[in-house]
Amino acid sequence: MSHLKYLSAYSEQTQQQVAQLIAKNQLGEVLLKRYSKPHDLRTDRALYQYVQELKTEFLRNAEPINKVEYDSKIHVINHALGLHTSISRVQGGKLKAKHEIRVATMFKEVPLEFLRMIAVHELAHIKEKQHDKSFYKLCTYMEPNYHQYEFDLRLYLTSLDIGGDRLWA
Question: What InterPro entries does this protein map onto (predicted)?
Fold first, then answer.
């Protein structure tokens, strides 16, 4: 099961079920049945607008997001799907923070549910810095199916990792 690095935190039983799907060459098929088409948010501007709408709906009083973009320098290999950065600067007598969200370019061609999961995850970091219980509670508040989408995204990454095709490209 060492080739299931994206699923290492899941139970042995779950990993065995995924290994069986891989052995039968059905992992991609299962994902395509659940998620038939990719999203259409291809530009940085469209991504920014999408994330802003999520922020407005769920985190109205949070600090503003200054930049949202796809970033080709983010690699899943480094265990990053997206990044939230906060840059603090002194302006006048006040401390100002600029928040930026970057999403790996490979997520231009995935289902909207996967992109939403990444956006929700990065937005949650505005309020909760650590991956703790309150962080995941906020994620599931913004997206009730957060954990399912994260698992399915991990299945997709596993599929790519073992040499599978990009399913929605």
Answer: UTP_pyrophosphatase-like, YgjP-like_metallopeptidase
Q: How far apart are CA 50 and CA 40, in angstroms?
A: 11
Q: How far apart, in whole angstroms, are the C-alpha atoms of residue 69 and residue 106?
A: 12
Which tokens in the block code for residue 102? 């970057």
- Owner of token pair 């956006």: 119
Instruction: Return phi, psi of residue 40, to 5°.
Output: -115, 25
Rounded Cα–Cα distance for residues 96 and 148 (Å): 36
86-100 pLDDT, tens per residue?
676 677 777 777 889
All residues at 6 or more sequence positions from 122 whose CB lies less than 8 Å from its CB, including other chains: 51, 82, 83, 84, 101, 103
Q: Per-residue confidence at 85, pLDDT binned at 50, 70, 90?
A: low
